[in-house]
Structures are given as C-alpha cells and as structure tokens.
Design brief:
Family: Belongs to the MecA family.
Pfam families: MecA
Protein name: Adapter protein MecA
CATH class of the largest domain: Alpha Beta
Shape: globular
Subunit structure: Homodimer.
Number of helices: 7
Number of domains: 2
Order of helices and strands: EEHHEEHEEHEEHEHEH
Function: Enables the recognition and targeting of unfolded and aggregated proteins to the ClpC protease or to other proteins involved in proteolysis.
Strand content: 25-35%
C-alpha cells in the first residue's frame, strides 16, 4: 500500500491486488459496509498519519477507483474540522463520517522509470496485446495508458508482462493527458516497436 499527499486536505492511496488479497478483500467488497473494509480504512488512515501526518476527524470524502487487474486508487479528502465541543459530543466510533464514491476505470496505466524500460515492455507485449496505447512523460517517468477493451485473459497476460518492466501507476489517463507531455496519443506500442526494435 502506497500513500502520497495531493494537497493539504487530500491524499491518495494505491492498493495493489496483493494488498487486497492479504486482507481477504475482493474488489466487490469495497462496495459493502463490512468490518474488514472498515479495518482496511483504519489501517490506511494510520499509515497516512505515520507517513504524512495526515489526521482525519469530521466529514471525509472517499473516492475509490478500481483499476482492472491492478488494484485500486483511493482518494481521501478532509472536510471541515469539527469544533472541540463537537468532538467532545462524539464517541470513538463517530470520529469521522464517510462519503464514498466508487468508480471503475476502463484503462490500465503503467509507469516506467526510464525510456529503455518502456521500449523493452512494448517489445515484449506487442505480440500479446497489439499496437494500442498512449505514452506520456510526467514527473521524470514514462506512462503507458492502455484501454481494457480486450479479452480478460489477454489483459491479465499483458499486465503480467508489463509488470516485469514497470509498475502500476496511481495516475489516471486523464491526469496524464492534462498535466503530462504526450509522446504518442495512439498506437504507442506499435510505434515504439517500429522505431526502436
């Protein structure tokens, strides 16, 4: 589980499939109000406090983005901080109230430390997943964004190959389009293979 600060009142977690499996949580469980999901959220908030000094009390907005075959991105935003009198009136179980939004992404995003890793990943995955995708440069990394409109088994195998060279990213394709530099906006894997293999 990775956590990063987005702003003073907003943080983002990336939960891999392994993080969820270790806790016995399926993606579908995130839609339910069950104890193991509450325990996961409490663990996340403990980690956010330890690593970033991020404390919550009062209203909290939680956005959960399911990433196909990769895990989940969870964005937590603090609302207004309750007054001391309001805190005194709450018992320990009511320290925060959640407003949860759930979405499923139709994209897979991988980040690569350098361009050579991206070239290797494209070459190794080309025969399996074809020539699609977009590539962006952002914050000293390269990002490959793939649509998930392919057979589930092909997608799983493609993700396994890409994982050998990079890692799943917590950024969405929309963030990369907005803030990153577009290298290839379509057919990225095919273009990389054509020029660099």
């Amino acid at each position: 589980m990775r956590v990063e600060r987005l702003s003073r009142d907003k943080i983002r977690f990336f939960l891999s499939m392994d993080d969820l499996m270790e806790r016995g949580i399926e993606k579908e469980d995130m839609w339910q109000d069950i104890p193991k999901v509450h325990e996961l959220f409490n663990d996340m908030m403990d980690q956010a406090y330890r690593e970033l000094g991020f404390e919550i009390s009062g209203p909290v907005a939680v956005e959960v983005f399911a990433l196909p075959a990769q895990g989940m991105v969870v964005v937590v935003s603090r609302g207004r901080t309750p007054s001391r009198d309001e805190l005194d009136d709450l018992d320990g179980d009511e320290l925060y109230e959640l407003e949860v939004t759930l979405e499923e992404s139709d994209q897979v995003v991988f980040q690569f430390a350098d361009f050579e890793d991206l070239v290797q990943a494209a070459g190794s995955s080309y025969r399996l997943i074809g020539s699609g995708g977009s590539v962006y440069a952002y914050r000293d990394h390269y990002y490959l964004v793939l649509d998930t409109e392919m057979e589930a088994e092909t997608l799983q195998k493609g993700i396994a190959v890409l994982s050998e060279y990079g890692e799943a990213s917590t950024y969405t394709g929309h963030v990369l389009q907005e803030y990153g530099k577009t290298i290839w906006d379509r057919d990225a894997i095919g273009e990389i293979v054509r020029y660099f293999s």
